[in-house]
Amino acid sequence: MEECIFCKIAKGEIPSERILETENFFAIKDANPKVKGHALVIPKKHYGTLLDVPSSLLGEFFETAKQLALKLLEKEKAEGFNVVVNNYEVAGQLVPHVHIHILPRKKDDGFRMNV
Ligand code: AMP
Ligand code: ZN
Predict the structure, then answer these.
(1) Structural domains of the chain sorted by starting position, each given as residue range(s) with its CATH number in brackets
(2) Cβ–ligand 1 contact at 115 (below 6 Å)
(3) Ligand 1 pocket, 35 CB below 6 A?
(4) Which of 41, 98, 99, 113 is 20 to 30 Å from the Cα of 18, by its Cα?
(5) What is the pLDDT of residues 63-88, one digit of tens each?
(6) Does the C-beta of 30 come closer than 6 Å to ligand 1?
(7) In this structure, are residues 62 and 27 in contact, taking their beta carbons and an 8 Å threshold?
(8) Residues forming a β-bridge with 62
(9) Among this protein's residues, is 46 annotated catalytic?
(10) Mean predicted confidence (pLDDT) in 85-107
């Protein structure tokens, strides 16, 4: 996937500030934050959707999301957070390299998710 933006970030071809990093994953701030502190957990290897991630990596994937959520709750002084994974274009996936969104939430932050 030569053109994939998250592969380029993973390889360091596009510079990024990593909020945290594990053996197989890293987290960065979302370039277009829906709320303050909005960040993404991204696998270093290219997997299209959650269905392509090997089951052996799912624990580390969600543990990294948990650690990111803890960090963002503290940093943003947030009172809660949403975890979102969009899979396939029809579900709103714009970058075809799977990622977990963590959205720190505060009362009256104006963000609405109708799930
Ligand atoms: P999704 O709709 O789930 O595929 O979300 C893709 C997310 O990636 C969006 O929230 C974008 O703002 C974000 N994004 C796209 N390009 C970059 C980038 N170069 N660095 C950080 N975030 C990005
Ligand atoms: Zn990729």
Answers:
(1) 5-105 (3.30.428.10)
(2) no
(3) no
(4) 113
(5) 999 999 999 999 999 999 999 999 99
(6) yes
(7) no
(8) none
(9) no
(10) 98
